[in-house]
């Protein structure tokens, strides 16, 4: 084997090793949300602030209060929907059910679905909807909250547009995003819940996030 061929083989092996290393160390992006200034050793230091979910408290499908503390130390997928939605919600939740089934029983993973129909979707209706969907236990929570609180959190924290619109099918308009949150309550990525390819990517990214230190 001549020196040139050995050189090429070594370069190929190095490229494969670098690629494998990059894949194993891949990190999901953080979403900036401004900067803050602190003082370290008498000197001002500017730090980036990342998009983080605020404290929350909602009633779940069992009329039990659910708060951000129930999600401490876990990654979770959040979405906004309403039970009588005639358009994107059924597709979005069928796709999300596949994600739920993959991670069912994993104590580091949860799911949080917020209704935007504060008039109709009382806890008992959420419970019936969840049962028909095929979710059970505490891993996937369906929650109700006051209109202003839910809408503000959707738009400010999760960066998802929701609103009432009498002209829209079902009376509401919203984006079908599945938003991935890390163990520090930081928004890491959003996926179109009606797109099968993006839902597959969500699961791949969840695997990466679970390995993140």
UniProtKB/TrEMBL annotation:
Signal peptide: none annotated. Transmembrane segments: none annotated. Cu cation binds at residues 85, 89, 174. The keyword Disulfide bond applies. Pfam families: SCO1-SenC. Residues 25-211 form the Thioredoxin domain. It comes from the Bacteria. Keywords: Copper, Disulfide bond, Metal-binding. InterPro entries: SCO1/SenC (IPR003782), Thioredoxin-like_sf (IPR036249), Thioredoxin_domain (IPR013766). GO terms for molecular function: metal ion binding. Disulfide bonds join 85-89. Belongs to the SCO1/2 family. This is SCO family protein. The lineage of its organism: Bacteria, Pseudomonadati, Bacteroidota, Sphingobacteriia, Sphingobacteriales.
């Amino acid at each position: 084997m001549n020196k040139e061929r050995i050189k090429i083989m070594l370069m190929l092996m190095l490229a494969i090793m670098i690629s494998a290393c990059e894949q194993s160390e891949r990190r999901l992006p953080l979403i900036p949300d401004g900067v803050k200034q602190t003082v370290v050793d008498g000197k001002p230091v500017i730090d980036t602030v990342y998009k983080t979910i605020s404290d929350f408290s909602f009633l779940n499908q069992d009329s039990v209060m659910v708060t951000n503390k129930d999600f401490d130390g876990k990654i979770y997928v959040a979405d906004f929907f309403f039970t009588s939605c005639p358009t994107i919600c059924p597709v979005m939740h069928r796709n999300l059910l596949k994600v739920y089934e993959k991670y069912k029983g994993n104590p580091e993973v949860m799911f949080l679905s917020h209704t935007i129909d504060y008039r109709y979707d009382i806890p008992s209706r959420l419970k019936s909807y969840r049962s028909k969907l095929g979710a059970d236990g505490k891993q996937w929570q369906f929650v109700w909250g006051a209109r202003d609180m839910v809408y503000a959190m959707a738009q400010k924290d999760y960066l998802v547009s929701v609103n009432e619109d009498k002209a829209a099918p079902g009376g509401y308009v919203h984006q079908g995003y599945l938003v991935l949150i890390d163990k520090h309550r930081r928004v890491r990525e959003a996926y179109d819940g009606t797109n099968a390819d993006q839902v597959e990517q969500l699961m791949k990214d969840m695997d990466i996030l679970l390995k993140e230190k």
